[in-house]
Amino acid sequence: MLKHAVALTVAGSDSGGGAGIQADLKAFSACGVYGASVITAVTAQNLDGVRAIQAVRPPVVEAQLRAVLEGYPVRAVKTGMLFSRAIIAAVAAVLREHPRVPLVVDPVFAATSGGRLIRPGAIAALVEDLFPLAALVTPNVPEAEFLCSGAIRSLEDLREAGELLRRYYDVPFLMKGGHLPGGTGGAVDLLVLEKGGDVFEAGRVRGVNSHGSGCTFSAAIAAHLARGRDLRSAVAAAKAYIHGSLAHAHALKPGTRVIDHFFVAE
User: Containing H/E element for 238?
Assistant: First the structure.
C-alpha cells in the first residue's frame, strides 16, 4: 500500500482552520499522504458561524486544478465547498479528463453552524455534473433529506434514502448518520453499493464541537483511496480515524473541545 501518495482537495478555505481546505490537509497528513489543494472560496468563519464568503473566479479554480493534476501524481480527489454553478462546471470539466482518479464528493450545503456554503441554484449543477463522476458521494442527514425531498428520522429511513440515491445516480453513497437521534445507539454510517453494502458504527462522542467532521471524514476516505485501499476498506479506515479524532478531542479554548485532526488510528 502506498504511503506517500498524493491526494487533492478542492474546497473552500476556513479561516478558523477546523473545516474545508485546512481540515482536509491536516487529515491527509494524519492518514499518511501528501496533500495538494484547490481553493474555491475564502470564508471568514469561526466556530460560531460564517461571516463572509468570497468565491474564487472559475478560471482561477480551473488553473489551480490543472496545475496540480498536471504537476503531481494525484491518486484521489475530494470535493467540498464548491459554492457556485460556474465553479462546479469548471471543476467537472477538468475532472472528466481524469476518469481513472477516484473522486469523493462531499456535497457541502451548509456549515455546522448553519451558514450556507452553496448558492441555491448550484445544487442542481452539483448533482448533474459532479455526482456521475464520483467513486463515492458522502451526504449527511440534512443533505440527504434535501436530495431525497423527505425526512430521515431513523436508520431504516437512512438506508432507504441511500438505496434511492444510489439507484438514481448510479454511484456508491456513504450515508453519514451522525445527525440521527441519539437513541440509535452509536454513530452509524451506511455504505450503499450496487450489490449490498456495509454498516460502520462507532460509539457516539458527546461534548465535542463537531465543526469540520464531515470534511475530515471525506478527506480521510480520499487519503486511503490514494494509498491503494478499495472503497470498503478506505471507508473503514476513515471511520476509525474520525472516531478517534472526536474521542481524543482537545480543548481549543475554555469550554470548547474540537476534533484532533492529527489523531493517528492504529
Answer: helix 231-247
